[in-house]
Amino acid sequence: MEKKKNMGLTATHSPPSSFADGKPVIEYEFAPERFDPAAEARLRWKIDLYIIPTVALLYLFCFIDRANIGNARLAGFEKELGLKGYDYNKVLSIFYISYIIFEIPSNMACKWIGPGWFIPAISLGFGVCSICTAFVHNIGSASGVRFLLGAFEAGMLPGIAYYLSRWYRRSELAFRLSLYIVMAPLAGAFGGLLASGILKLSHFGGLQKWRMIFAIEGIITCLLSLIAFFTLTDRPATARWLTQEEKDLADARVRSERVAATEVLDKFDGPKILRGIFNPVTLSTAFIFLLDNITVQGLAFFAPTIVKSIYPKATVVSQQLHTVPPYIVGAFFTLLFPFLSWKFDRRNIFFIVSAPLMMVGYIMFLASTNASVRYGATFVIASGAFAFGALCNAQVSANVISDTARSTAIGTNVMFGNIGGLISTWSFLPFDAPNYHIGNGLNLGTSTGIFILSILLLLWMIANNKQRDKRDADVELAGLSQKQIQDLDWRHPDFRWKP
User: Does 470 reside within a domain?
Assistant: First the structure.
């Protein structure tokens, strides 16, 4: 065996018979403590600078293009299209139907096509859909465009999460996910500011009022997606901005945490696909994300409406601006909890910490009709709700082994989350205004459910790990081929749940 040391990385070359793409495969003797911490820090910072800004901006406008319908509603969207009763809720629901249908297929396509092409392509798609929304004239055309918007946006959140899992270690992932998921609350803040500024224009071409919001924001999205075609790269091996030593280190860092894995990017495999979807931690975490998303998406779509019920005499621009501060506070906690998760390499405990904040916020809504108390409640709710996007995706990513299982686990998590989004579109109904007892009561129930389920999930992972400690890996793996061992994924006896 010929050995080499690169930047604190020990590697061994495989036998000449092992090839990938015509080149010898490098298999590493993985021991994370052998990695040079300084070299790792330099590589991590370089990856942060080259990847995070692009995906963060794309996700910012992904969320803006989804949620700007709430701002358009204040500017006359419903009235001009003749929407009555539950029509607005129907238009919102159409988006989530396609979003849910295409969630897992989109993430599998992301792996097959490659994130460097797939993410910019779907970004261009939903940018075009946003522009098209500026030209709708009835509920039918509005619903059709929203369906297409959901189909394109379905791959965005899980696609970026899966993409980043190719670059970062388990402990690092939650914070890096938060650096783009923070764009969800910032989109609520920035979207309100942008909508206020756009509405001050007399016209944009032949468009006026709410139509300008969709057109201008869609054009910005399209421009960003075109830039992303040139700035995103699929994986470390194809990154022109990494040296060969940095590519080797990036590859080894990720593979060092994958039990029995011989390659970072494996081929599609049926058993691994199912291991990602039917992983007990994936399904439990996904249900927690479903409950959380009822709150997160409800805030995105109905925050302007809620603020209007609190400050009914304020101008439209003032109401738009009042939606901004709670999102800023939410953005702070979206970064804080995943940052602490990175430092402690723990995720589940922050589910348990975040849920009571949401519970307190909805209790405030239900217990008081005072405008100041209710407005304060939106800050408390936002501080607990938004961090789950990063934490849940990081948790399901940390609790599978193969790249294929990771893509389907993340896709499953986000699919469940958007079932919560679909429920959220019916949580604040017209007849329940202005106090929205049903919507607030529902969200109090879901946040309480998150708190209980998170505690139970943590206790189960700890108990199951103790059971795994008693298993004899050599006996269980005896007689199995390398493929059969790899297909075990989280069922491998040496695997331990990572809460």
Answer: yes
